[in-house]
Amino acid sequence: MKVIKFGGTSVGSAQRMKNMVDIVVREGKVMVVLSAMSGTTNSLISITDKLKNNLDEEALSCIGELEKKYTATVDELLPSSDSRAKGLVVVDEIMGKLRGYAGTNIKVKQEKEIVAFGEKLSTRLVNLYMRERGLDVILLDAAEFMRIKEDGEPDTEYIKKHITDKLDSNPSHMIYLTQGFICRNHIGEIDNLQRGGSDYTASLIGSAINADEIQIWTDIDGMHNNDPRFVEGTAPVHELHFEEAAELAYFGAKILHPTCVQPAKSANIPVRLLNTMQPDAPGTVIYNTKPDHKIKAIAAKDNITAIKIKSSRMLLAYGFLRKVFEIFEKHHTAIDMITTSEVGVSVTIDNEDNIDPIINELSQYGAVTVDRDMVIICVVGDLEWQNRGFEAKVVDALRNVPVRMISYGGSNYNISLLVKKEDKIRSLQLLSEHLF
Ligand code: ASP
Ligand code: MG
Q1: 196 CB less than 6 Å from ligand 1?
Q2: Could you tell me the pTM of the whole model?
Q3: How many degrees, rounded to 5, is the angle at CA 80 between CA 78 and CA 84?
């Protein structure tokens, strides 16, 4: 069985939902994972913000807007008056629940319940539409098998057991439909897999049921070899190794959520990125590809801060790096890039929340310098060190751009370079010109 996931834009209107179902029926027996209609999760978050700030009138007016949008979707999506009536019951029920939060105390628990409504709406409406088309579909409630542990990580054993039980007790359907994003936490409350988490749901389900393939449908024809917003003439990369895809997702390729790669990779299940607007285009397939010694793609990650600690005492000293890293760990700040020399170390972070205490504590080990508004440019491919020439090509491409840090050798799959924000677009363009 394949797991196929459709993102917000792929279910973004009644017409898109219909197109999406055309794609589903081509695949045989499938598990379908849906996001909320595009814009809905943002609206729900803005409604919770208003409720938290006691702006109930404003929240109710947003709920009214949302209700209008969904009523129109029901009208357009569902052809028979019978299923339209059922669709309106769904909309009514969920808007009623949303309104019920007005005037109550909104805590984290209630926020999580509210943001889950987006995926509930999309799946219930698509379920009605599939039934109207005579398809053999069953709607499974993700909250009954998706679960995270106390540390927020998915409880993969629980997920595997519960989804397998669900499928075993409903063995004969063609389409199993469920919500992305939604789960329960370790104490059984409604929770979620974080923004963009529907990809993660698909990958977790895929590995739990040992799917033949995981398909992620969006509105772009695969992972491109550079950012099409800044570089002309980019092209989809047809094949990527799991590690290459993980680097690209993490370093800025918006098409795939970074967390999605790991479960598919450990279960060795191919992930295919496909485009609902061009269903027959090949897209990108991610799997354990054979080494091909090629540079595949370039991505950029914005809002990076570089911190340099220069200490004469690092000379021949051991324990210096540990002390430096401990400070970042203590302040829950992840490090992206690292470069070292005999007398200093530079690291980058993408979260400045705790930068003041970090700098303060680092200062006891040496002189600290901070460069803000930087961008990591990440070149990804099969870059095993015994292959010759690609470091030279990358550096040569950026010969006229000031580069603050270069990092290579941490993995076989990436070279990272740190440049100023204003040099980002030029760097992406130069790399495309020189490498492809
Ligand atoms: N609806 C959620 C979000 O907008 C999850 C997802 O679409 O992946 O973040
Ligand atoms: Mg998404």
Answers
A1: yes
A2: 0.89
A3: 55
